[in-house]
Every structure is written in structure tokens, then in C-alpha cells.
Design brief:
With 266 residues, the protein is α+β, with helices and mostly antiparallel strands. It contains eight helices and eight strands. Among the domains are: 22-87, no CATH class; 138-191, no CATH class. The longest helix has 32 residues, at 140-171. It starts with 9 loop residues before the first strand and ends in a 5-residue tail after the last strand. The model has no long low-confidence stretch (mean pLDDT 95).
């Protein structure tokens, strides 16, 4: 069996994996409609769109009334900024190829999000990969100087982690090997740079995702997280064209893509 080539230790682009989307429990929806004596049909393609519409119609018991298509209904939600309805639509994304610097900013988005991130206490970062800042991807000389610094830090981390593990073993010979390694890594990680690649599992509702795209897809945002916002925008627009119809990817004057939203702060 052919072996896979080694991964490039230097990363230039994030990856986004869509791992979780919702489903509608049709039997329970039918039971609710029957018991309330109302009729409801929708042309929505995504369960998240169906649930957002049901949530909104529940507020006024407007099933079978008014706007006929899911797109028309959700367009009205967006223009009227009735954003709480969108909190019922949820997606889970696994994000890789991003730096610790990026996730320091990402996890500031608290409302409507849940996070699970790679632990540097339990995972050996001796063979970690590193994210090249977009600015250094433009200039070979600066990239070479940056890479030299990273390699120095990589070597220092490995040597420090090994020495620390030996010290912990001498100080606490009764400690289990797994715990010794954790103690050593949690101390040695203090010298790891922000460029160290991490992986993070993020679950968010569509109102929160819209806010993230608006804030971090902006040309005023840090470049790395801006490029991540563009990738997430592509995924979510494909998943739900009716919830993200006004979210657009465009090319900014600086030559890089950005995100803009017609209905701000829904």
C-alpha cells in the first residue's frame, strides 16, 4: 500500500468541514399541526430553513397564511431584523489550518457559539504545523526569515519538553507517564508561537454565524480570520441560500476577497 507523502509543515489556507446539520422530526411536526388544526407546507430545501420558518410562524400562529415560499418568509425576517428566529438554525463546522492567533479572536464570539479546541497540554506539538501569515506569503525574503524563526522555536520546544519531562520524572517518580507528559507539555507550550496550527470544532446558530461573517469578513478584520470567514461564507450560503441570501463574497481593493451583508445586525 502506497504511503502518503508527509504534510507540508507550513499552511497557507484554512479548511472548513461541515460536520453537523439539523433535521426536522416530521412526525412531531404533523402531530403539532393536527392537534392545532392548522396546515403548513414549505418549499425549503434545508431543515434549518424549515425550522426557522416554523419558529417565526409560531409567534403569530400564521401557519398557512401570508407569504407562501420559505424565501419570501425569511426575507421578511431579515428585512424586519427579527433575528431571534434565526437562532433556531444551527450548523457545526470543524476548522483546521488556522493559527492560535486566529482562534484567540474567534472564541471572542460567545453568544450562540460552542467551541472544542485542540489541547496543547495533551497533544505533542513537536511536529506541529504552522500557519504562514498572508502578508509573508507575498514576500519570499520575509517568509524565509519568518520560517527560520519558527524552526528555531520548534527545536527549542522539543528540547524543552524533553528536559521538562525528565525533571518531572525525577521530582515525581510515582506519577503516571501520561501525567508526566501533560505536565511537561503544559509548561513547554508557553514558548509556542501564535502561528502554531490548531483545530477547532465550532457549533453556531445562523444569527451568530451572520454576525461572525459581518465582523470577520470585513476588510478591516485581521487578514487570516477574514479569509476564514470567506470560506465559511461559501459553506453556509451553499447550505442555506434562504438564510444567507444577502451575504456576498466580493473582491476588495487590496486584491483579497471579503464579505459584505445587506441586512446588518439582524
Amino acid at each position: 500500500m502506497a504511503t502518503k507523502p508527509p504534510l507540508d509543515p507550513y499552511i497557507t489556507k484554512p479548511k472548513v468541514y461541515l460536520l453537523g446539520r439539523q433535521t426536522v422530526v416530521r412526525e412531531e411536526l404533523s402531530r403539532f399541526l393536527d392537534e392545532e388544526g392548522v396546515a403548513f407546507t414549505t418549499d425549503a430545501g434545508a431543515a434549518a430553513e424549515v425550522l426557522a420558518e416554523i419558529a417565526g410562524r409560531t409567534c403569530y400562529m400564521s401557519f398557512g397564511k401570508g407569504r407562501k415560499t420559505n424565501r419570501e418568509y425569511l426575507d421578511n425576517i431579515l428585512t424586519s431584523k427579527h433575528g431571534s428566529v434565526l437562532e433556531h438554525a444551527v450548523w457545526s463546522l470543524l476548522i483546521t489550518g488556522v493559527s492560535r492567533s486566529l482562534t484567540h479572536e474567534l472564541v471572542r464570539h460567545r453568544a450562540g457559539f460552542g467551541y472544542s479546541q485542540l489541547s496543547q497540554r495533551y497533544v505533542d506539538e513537536g511536529d506541529a504545523r504552522y500557519v504562514v501569515p498572508p502578508l509573508y506569503q507575498e514576500n519570499d525574503e520575509l517568509r524565509a526569515r519568518w520560517r527560520q524563526t519558527i524552526e528555531t522555536l520548534r527545536k527549542a520546544y522539543v528540547e524543552l519538553a524533553d528536559s521538562t519531562a525528565q525533571y518531572v520524572q525525577q521530582k515525581h517518580p510515582e506519577m503516571a507517564p501520561r501525567d508526566r507528559r501533560k505536565w511537561a507539555r503544559q509548561a513547554a507550550r508557553s514558548i509556542l508561537p501564535n502561528a502554531c496550527e490548531t483545530k477547532i470544532f465550532v457549533t453556531g446558530n445562523s444569527r451568530s454565524w451572520r454576525h461572525f461573517l459581518e465582523m470577520r469578513g470585513s476588510p478591516h478584520a485581521d487578514t487570516e480570520i477574514r479569509l476564514l470567514a470567506v470560506e465559511i461564507c461559501r459553506v453556509l450560503k451553499n447550505e442555506s441560500p434562504n438564510i444567507f441570501p444577502d451575504v456576498e463574497i466580493y473582491d476588495e481593493a487590496d486584491g483579497m476577497p471579503a464579505v459584505r451583508i445587506t441586512h446588518s445586525k439582524v
